Amino acid sequence: MHNHVPSHGQLQPRPHPSSALRPIQPPRYSTTRGAQLLVNHTPPALANWQEFPSLPGKSKAVPIINPQTGTAHASLVSAQEQPALSKQYSDGRSRICSTAVDGKAGQNSGAQRDSPTESSSREFNIYARPFVPEAFSIINELIPPEGRDIHTKGAKEIDCEVYIGRCIPRDFLPDIPLPIESPMTSPFDLVDGVMHTDYETYFQFHIEAEIKSQMLENETYTLFGHAIKDPIHEIRDPIQDPLGFTTCSILVPGLRENSPYVEEDDVIELRELIYDQSGRLRGMEHWLAQLSQFYGNKPWSPRWRNELSPGWTGFIYHARVLAVQRKDNTLVIRIDQSPDAWRWALPFRESPRFNIQFPVAMARYQPMKLALPIIQKALRHADKTRYHLTNNVRSPPNTPWLQSMLFPVEKDCDKQISLNPGNFKQKFFDDQLNWEQKKAIGSICSRDYGVLPFLISGPPGTGKTKTLVEVALQLIKCSDGVSHILFCAPSDQAADMIVQRTSSHFSKGELLRLNRSSRTFAEVPGAVLPYCWVLEDKFDLPDFQLLMACKLVVTTCRDASLLLYSRVSNTDLIAAESGLRCAINPDATPPTMFQLHWTALIIDEAAQAIEPEALIPLSVVAPLDSVKIKSLPLVIMAGDEHQLGPRTSLPSSPLKTSLFARLFARPVYANHVLSRGQAGEREPKILNRSMLPIARPAFANLIRNYRSHPAILAVPSSLFYFDTLEPEAADTDCLASWSGWRGRKWPVLLHNNNFEDSMDLENGGWHNAGEAQIACKYAAELVQSGLVAQKDICIMSPFKAQVACLRRIMRRPRFGSLWDIDIGPTEAFQGLERSVVILCTTRSKQQFVESDKKANWGVIGMPNVMNVALTRAKYGLIVIGKRDTLFLDANWRAFLEFCERNGLVNGEDSRPVQDKSNTKPSTRLEKVLLAREEEPNESRVLKVYSQEDEMWTFGMQAALDADSSDSYELSDDGEGNDEYEYGENEEV
C-alpha cells in the first residue's frame, strides 16, 4: 500500500505498535502492519503551555513546541498515552511531540543528552506532566446532565448487617466509635506523648494526604481518545433490563507494573467522544473559542461545566472491572444500561473512542478508617503516665493491651535471670527447621517474653513464612490457651501461600481462607479453593457456628475487616457473651475470667503493610481492657524492614514506615544487647551469665540464607544486616564454568556502562539503549552456554521505559528471540528468586539522581530497592551501570569496591583495583571466600553455640583465619559458658 501524505505536507508519525498510543483522530487508512496514516486534517489546537505548571515527582514530561515561538517548554498533561503531533520547521525537519506512559517520567525518544537544567531554548522540565490538547482534557471536567451518569452494579457484597442479625443479639454489642472528621493538621511525629489523644488524628491526616496524592497520580494515567476492544452486547431480560449490558476489554499501558493499580470490581469512568467526518473532535475548536471569548482571562464560572460539549455524548459510564490481565496490560470491563451499547458491538464498524479515567477506590481505605477510632478509644483510656515510667518502676497492672502492642517499652518484657535450656523439648512438624527458627518458635510457644509483639527479622531467603507456619501449627496443636488463630498477610498471593503450606495439617472445617466477595475464582489457586466459603457463586462468610469452629482463619490484613463488620472481634464476642449470660440468668455470679476466641494474631510480610492496615486484624484480636482475661492474645509478626516497604503514592509519606519497622526501631528491640545491630560483626552474640539479668528478647533474627552464593550475599549482608547472613544454599557453584566471570571467578560481575540514559518518548520515561543491549547480550550468552534455562534468568530495571526497551530488544532474532526470560521492574521481584539476575541501573546522568531520590525512583540512593535487586539471585548476579554515577552513593560504592578488589569487573574503563590501600577485604563473607581458596589452618577451633550450626562454624573459623588479629570469646570466665545450660540428660 502506498503511503498517503497529508495535503499540508506533514507526514504524521506512526502510532505505538501496541495500538495503545494512537492518533487522537480515528484513522482513515491503515497498512497491513497496522500502522495508521492520517490524511486531510491538521493537528488539534494546543492549549497555552503556560497554563500548566509542572508537578515535580508526580508526572511525566515531554517537550512541547510553542506555536508562536517555535521553542520547547515544560508541559503538563493528565494523560498517559497520547498521539504524536508533528511541527514543521523552516529547515524542513519535523519535531515530534507526544505523551506516553511510564509511571516515572516521559522523555524524548531521541538521543536527548543535554541537561534540562542547562540554559537553552530547548529546555523542558523532565518531571513535568505531559501535554494533552484542551479539546480532550476539558471533556473530563464537564458534568453530565441529570440521568446521564450510568452506574454498573458491582459484585454483591457480604451483607454483614444480616449476618449479625442471624448470629448475635444486637442489644449486647458495644457501640462502634465513629471516625473523626478529616483533620487539617496532625502531630509532627508519632511519639509516645501523643498516642493517647492524637494517634487517630495522625494517621487520618496522612491517609487523606495519600488519597489526594493517589487521585493526582491516577489523573496521569488517564487515557484520551482510547478504543475499546471486542465489545459484546447482551440483553438477558428484555422486560426488566431492556438495555442490557456490554462487556469489552481495554488496553491499559503500565497495568502490568501497577501503574495504575486496579483490582477486580473497581470502577473506571468512560466518556464516549464524537468525531466529525474529517476525524476531528466534532465542533470543539469553535466551542472552546466561544468560551474563551466569553470569559477571557477571568476564571471560568462553574456554570459552563453543566454545558454539553459537541465532542462528547454527554454520558459518563461508571464501568466495573471484571478481570485484570496484568501480563497483557488488559482490563475486561462491564458497562450496564448504555443506550449506545448496541452501536458499539456492530460488526464492521469502527471502534468507538473514549476518555478513560481511573478513580481512586475509596473502599480500600475504609477498613483502615474503621479500625483507627477503635484503636484510639483503647489508647484514650490508657494510663497517661504510662510512658513516664522509669526502668526501676514496674508497669501498672492495668496497662492496656493495645498500648503494649503499639508502644512497647522494656517494662512490658519479662526478665531473664537464667540461661536457656540446652535443647528444644517440643516435637516440630517441619524437620527442616534450623536452630534460629526453632529458637524463635520455642520462645513464642513458651510465652515467657512478656506482653508485647514478637518480631521475627527475616532477611532474604531465610524462611520467614516457614517459621510462621510452624508457629501456627505449634500454637494450635501443642499449646494450651491457644485455640483460634488469625493469620494475615498484606497480599492475596501471600495469604494463599500460607493456606497451601498449612492445609495438609487441617481439615476443611478447621482451616478457612477468608476472601472479600469481589475476588474472582480465577485468581485463587486450585489447592486453596476447597478452604474458601462460597455462597451463590461468590465468596462469603461461613455460618456463625462454622466460623467459630475454624482453628485457623487466613486472610489479608484488609479483608480482616470482614470480621470487624460482622462483629466477631474479641471485644464484640466478650460483650455478647457477658450480656447474653446476664440476660438469661441475671442472678448468677458473673465469671471472674473470660476466655478469648482469637488467641493469637500472626502477620507475615508485615514490613509491606502500612500501619493503619495492620491495625485492622489487631482490632479483631484486641481484648476488652475492662474484664479479666485468662490468657492475653499473642501477636507475632515477621518481615524485613530493609527490603521494600509499603507502596504509597507520596514518596515521603510517613505511611511508608510500617508498624513492623516502627516497632523494631523502638528501644526495647533496637537497643537490646542481643539485637542484630548491637551485636556487630560477630553476630549472633552469645548470651552468657555475666549479662544476666536482662529483658528477655521479644524478637528473633534469622541469619541463614538458603538462596544465594556467598559472593552474592557478601555486600548486602554487610550493608543491611550487620554482616550476619550465613549462606546455607547448596550447589551454588553450578555456574562457575561460565566464561563470562572475571577476576576470582566468583559469580558476581559489575559491567561499567558508559552509554548515556535518554528519554523514551514512545514508552515514556528513562531508558538506556546501550545498557539494554549489554544486558540482552549477557542473557543470550548464558542461555547459549547451556548452564541455565531462559525461565531461570531475570532482567530488571527500576525504570519502566527501560523494561519496555529490554523486552523489545530481548525478543529480537539477534538475541535468539528469547521470550521466556523474565523482564520486569525491580519492585515486581520482591519475594521472588531467579538463578541469574541481570540488574540494569539505567541512570547515568548524575544531575538527576537527587530528583530521582525525591520521587522514589531508581536504585541510587534507594537502599531498600538496592537490597531487593541484589538478593534475588541464586547462582549469578550481573550489575550494569555507570561507575562514576553509582560511586556517588555510599552503598553502591561498597559494592563497586568489593567488585574491584576481587577483579569482578568488565566493560569499558573497568577498574580491577580502584585504590591499592583498599584491597583488604571488608566483609565477613568476603573473608570466608578468600579463606576457602587458601589452605585452612585446622589448629584453631572456634567455639559456637550449637552443634547444628556447621555453616556458622565454618564461616567464623574462616574469618578468623583471614584476619588473625580478631578474637571471639563466648564468656568472661574462659570456660565457654554460653547461652545454653546442659543437664545430664539433655541433648545439644
Walk me through the structure.
With 988 residues, the protein is of the alpha/beta class. The protein folds into five domains: 1-141, no CATH class; 215-364, Elongation Factor Tu (Ef-tu), domain 3 (Beta Barrel); 408-644 and 661-702, 3-Layer(aba) Sandwich (Rossmann fold); 710-932, Rossmann fold, CATH 3.40.50; 938-988, no CATH class. It contains 26 helices and 37 strands. The strands form eleven sheets. Strands 7, 8, 9, 10, 11, 12, 13 and 14 form an eight-stranded mixed beta sheet that branches. A seven-stranded parallel beta sheet has the order 19-22-18-23-24-17-26, with helices on both faces. The chain has a six-stranded parallel beta sheet with strand order 33-32-34-35-29-36. Helix 6 packs across helix 14 (611-621). Mean pLDDT is 79; it is low at 1-123, 387-396 and 938-988.
What is the strand tally? 37
Poorly predicted runs of 5 or more residues: 1-123, 387-396, 938-988
User: What is the mean predicted local confidence, pLDDT?
Assistant: 79
Helix content: 25-40%
CATH superfamily membership of the largest domain: P-loop containing nucleotide triphosphate hydrolases
Query: Which structural class fits the helix and strand makeup?
Result: alpha/beta
What is the highest CATH level, the class of the largest domain? Alpha Beta
Cα-atom Rg, whole angstroms?
A: 31 Å
Continuous helix count: 26
Counted up, domains total 5
The CATH architecture of the largest domain can be given as: 3-Layer(aba) Sandwich
Distance from first to last alpha carbon: 82 Å
The portion of residues forming beta strands comes to: 15-25%
Query: Biggest sheet: strands, sense, closure?
Result: 8 strands, mixed
| CATH topology name of the largest domain | Rossmann fold
Question: Tell me, what's the shape?
Answer: globular
